[in-house]
Amino acid sequence: MIDGMYVIDGVAHGYNWDISNFRSTRVGEKFREIVYPHIHEMISPLGTDFVMTKDEFLRTCSPETLVNCLFAESQTDLAVYHEVPLFGFVNDGGSPMSIGEAAAEIASQRFLFYGAVRPYDTANAIDRIDEQLENTGILGLKLYPNDVWEGKVTRLRLDDEEITFPILQHAVDRGIKTVAIHKAWIFGPSPIEPFKLDDLERAILSFKNLNFEIVHGGWAFVEETVMLAQNFSNVYINLEGPSAFAGLAPERFAHIIGPLLRSGAEDQIIWATGAMAAHPRPMVEALAAFVMPEHLVQGYGYPELTMERKAKILGENFARMHGFDLADRVNAIDDQFTGLGKLAAPWSALRQAA
Question: Residue-wise over 262-275: b if at least 16 C-beta within 10 A, else e?
């Protein structure tokens, strides 16, 4: 909690980028070269203790490190662990459910889960949904716009009636409320086309009882993102990535959040930091302190980011989307992280274990 506002981190990852985990050593080496500057350094406050070394960042995430950075080192109350479905590149996808489940053993009342599937094999994808509902209790699905399938980098379109629609229909039939799709943020040599938003509209119209989370919403394609949120109440904008700009590039953040607020989408914005991509604390504190620049209020008509709106973004919108009472859920937690008077130092569990 920060300033009386509950905090749900809408995306948490436990990365496994060990070179042995990649299906291709050559691809793994290239990926490991670019992922540190293109993710961690890009969204971290450089020159501070919140920045990991490259070796620290590339080390396979331990459950203790993930739990500690979220609940002992930041003001986060609950976190949504996302599996990453890059199974064609990385044997376990890159953010394996095993790390999230182990983290939840340490902080059992604080984690929620989105599971991943390989959509190109529809039957197996449907089976994996059933398996994760039974074993993990997933609330949502996480999809990625491309992956390697049958030896080729293949685009996934959400409006593909043969591949994606059966998976979405099964999700609906099994009571899953949300599908999260990575968009907008591209790192490394990859086609831009899969990360655009042109495949969303028909899926949104076809599955009106599903929520669609645009993960990294606003990192690119801001106008298209705003139009989708404005036109469809079942579209949610997940701020993983753009959340860092609240502190690092406030005017850029204003030009992402401002149009969404102006369009009336304040109930459709989901807070996320992507921890372990970067440390969550600077982002939480920057959002809590953020003031919409007056010249943008006057010049662009952006609404003020009031405490009421911040509370919605930080946790209330996610809780409402999934139908639970946020205050009741957080206040029922009683564990080692409850009532901590002082936050621990950044990456303390990681560095103590070294």
Answer: ebebbebbbbbbbb
